[in-house]
Amino acid sequence: MLNKLYRYKMVILILFFLLTYFIHANYNQLNKLKYPTIRTEEKIKLLSTSFGFSIQGYDKPAGALNSAGFNAGLPEYGIPALQEVDSGMGIANPGILRKNDNSTALPSTLLIASTFSRDLAFAGGEILGSEAKDKGFNIVLAGGVNLIREPRNGRNFEYSSEDPLLSGIMTGSFVQGIQSNNVVSTIKHFALNAQETGRVVLNAVISEKNARESDLLAFEIANEIGQPGSVMTAYNKVNGVYASENEFLLNQVLKKDWGYKGWVMSDWGGTHSTDKAISAGLDQQSGYEYDDAHYFGQPLVDAVRTGRVSHERIDDMFSRIVTTLNKHDVFKKVKPLTAKNYEQHAITAQKIAESGIVLLKNDGILPLKKDIKKILIIGGHADQGVLSGAGASQVIPEGSFLLKTKQGIQVFHKASIVDALRKELPSASIIFESGDNFDKIRNTDADSIIIVANQWGRETKDHLSLSLPDKQDALISSVAAIHDNVIVLLQTGGPVYMPWRDSVKGILEAWYSGTGGASAIANVIVGNVNPSGKLPVSFPLDASDLPHPIIREWSTTTSSPRLPKKGFFDINYNIEGSNVGYKWFYKNNLKMLYPFGYGLSYTKFDYANFTLTQDSEKIITLFADIKNVGSDFGVDTAQVYMYGPDNSVRLVSWSNTSLAEGKTKKVTFKIDPRLLSTYDVKNKEWVMNSGKYTFCLAKFFGDCSREVYFNTKKQVMYKYN
């Protein structure tokens, strides 16, 4: 009897495991079974989105939440509305149409990347995802992956890095955090959207090999880690074909080589056809009001009727969307967030900001002593708030300072750097000057002078120069010429020149630091927090050193999808190829103002016992001991760079290590085989060439505190099916 009962239990258990396997392996088929009665015309209704607010003569759709995108869904079949929201630095509220709707303003993506912390990237995404869910949104338009090929790109603050490994890991972790809240996230803008100037008309020219080893590798890693529900295409063309119609990018690379199961959406105004786009792999037209036609509306119905688009392709498009929504359980009801949740979000956002601020120079002036008597703070509207970037990702919390300029409205989050420092240094006299009255600056007897210098970045416009705008370089130079106690605090969206670098005592890069930015900056300045941020992008000395020294003037072309297209042009990215950022400077033996990975600390770290192993699966693992040899607790980001036999260099791993003074920790670095390889286009495989490979354990690119090497024969490291 017991044996019989045991056999029954085993049969039930086996059936359970088979059913579980069937569910995971045949999710698309299950969705076809779940929605067997939906006619093709009904499925097509899910394949496009409109704006979620009134625009250009279109009224706000019923049920929309005043956000970027909306689709009414198919409620009669149990598919509720799709509510899409712009994000990246928080939940955007365009035109503040949603009254009394506040969101946590996260630090910029570039600042988050400066932490080099997967955990903090996840935490930032978790904040964004939970607040999106709380406000009724189920699709979050975040996850900027594009490599920083162009340091003058006005939108660099929305991206992570010039390096594919750092960009892929940080964005993938951010997306993981977002999607942990029963919402779908995108990664974007696929692919080669490296500048804003002319983004809707430019043609990015690049070989497959160069693309696979740079921009596409960043997306590939982000996709593997984050498993985003959707991928958003770029506005630009790639090798003569719009990204939203690019068969190679969408069908070959994304869906076939990478096995992507989610859906591909266009950017708003980035769809140009019906048949061609669908054949290439585009699954959903976004914000059709910006396009020349509602291509995935009636024209798609007609294309199916005439046989130009198959019913099977419509089933695939529909199933990709519905499967993804069900996979992430986006229609699940959750408990509303409380005021305490938002308070905790602000604390986490401040922690991220503190970890991403980069100390670039310190001639013994930082941290400021707690008994300092007098501080003069100059410029940057530091008495009003901290600067943020502009565009679709813009977040405007209640109480923000709005500065009207010729270029547009600049948003400063309400926390003031001046007030934050006064809180931390209550016995000090802290005075603010805008910078307009130089006599007061000349005659000051302040013990320390902090100059806050801003570079405002925004979507659709790039910087024509890396010089600080509004004569701020001249102001800094003038002040430093008469005072020897100057600290410069930068709030920028990317690299800038520093002609005054040798004249000042300290430099901090705070990027766009978000809701808790002022307190984070103050904590670093007074030493409550030991700075640990590292540059995720190289700072060049001069534009003449860049692969593309001149950037086109924005008025000569079209950067907005709403405007008539003019000024079509090519950008030849084969000039630098896969040697983006620090790799370009290395290949061409060029010096940098500050290298990738650079960032100082108030303590010191030492590296020892750097060793290497390789297992039978071709995985290389490195080990090292890291010791805090300074006098303060600190976080070290040890970086490993591989120097190959073909004169190549790549970041292949890093570690974040928190250490009290005098403490040592053994760390492990595992290396992705693709990072040791070059891509073989003909055989669709990553190949490690024969020769000597040197691994440098470094504090930043160009440093080599410890090194190990090994020799190898040519071997295939990774192959696509």
Question: In CATH, what is the class of the domain at 354-540?
Answer: Alpha Beta
Tally of DSSP helical segments: 18
Largest sheet: 6 strands, mixed
Terminal Cα separation, in Å?
A: 50 Å
Task: Calculate the mean pLDDT score and round it.
Answer: 95
Rounded radius of gyration (Å): 26 Å
- Low-confidence stretches are 18-30
What portion of residues belong to β-strands?
15-25%
Description:
By secondary structure, this protein is an alpha/beta fold. Among the domains are: 1-33; 354-540, Glycoside hydrolase family 3 C-terminal domain (Rossmann fold), CATH 3.40.50.1700; 603-718, Immunoglobulins (Immunoglobulin-like), CATH 2.60.40. The protein contains 18 helices and 31 strands. Strands 1-2-3-4-6-9 form a 6-stranded mixed beta sheet. Strand 27 and strand 28 form a beta hairpin. Helix 5 (118-134) runs antiparallel to helix 13 (339-356), helix 6 runs parallel beside helix 8 and helix 13 (339-356) packs across helix 17 (517-526). It is globular and about 80 Å long. The model is unreliable at 18-30 (pLDDT under 50).
List key phrases describing it.
EC 3.2.1.21; alpha/beta; Immunoglobulin-like; 721 residues; beta-glucosidase activity; single chain; hydrolase; Ig-like_fold; Beta-glucosidase BoGH3A; Rossmann fold; globular; 6-stranded mixed beta sheet
Give the SSE layout.
Elements: H1 2-25, H2 27-34, H3 40-44, E1 69-71, E2 82-86, H4 109-114, H5 118-134, E3 139-141, H6 164-179, E4 184-190, E5 203-205, H7 208-212, H8 215-226, E6 230-233, E7 237-238, E8 241-242, H9 247-257, E9 263-265, H10 275-280, H11 298-305, H12 311-327, H13 339-356, E10 358-362, E11 374-378, E12 386-387, E13 401-404, E14 409-413, H14 417-424, E15 429-433, H15 438-442, E16 448-454, H16 472-482, E17 486-491, E18 506-509, H17 517-526, E19 539-540, E20 570-572, H18 582-587, E21 592-594, E22 605-614, E23 620-628, E24 634-643, E25 649-659, E26 664-671, E27 678-680, E28 685-688, E29 691-698, E30 706-712, E31 715-719
Parallel strand pairs: 2-3, 3-4, 4-6, 5-7, 5-20, 6-9, 11-15, 11-16, 16-17, 17-18
Antiparallel strand pairs: 1-2, 7-8, 10-18, 12-14, 13-14, 19-21, 22-23, 23-26, 24-25, 24-29, 27-28, 28-31, 29-30
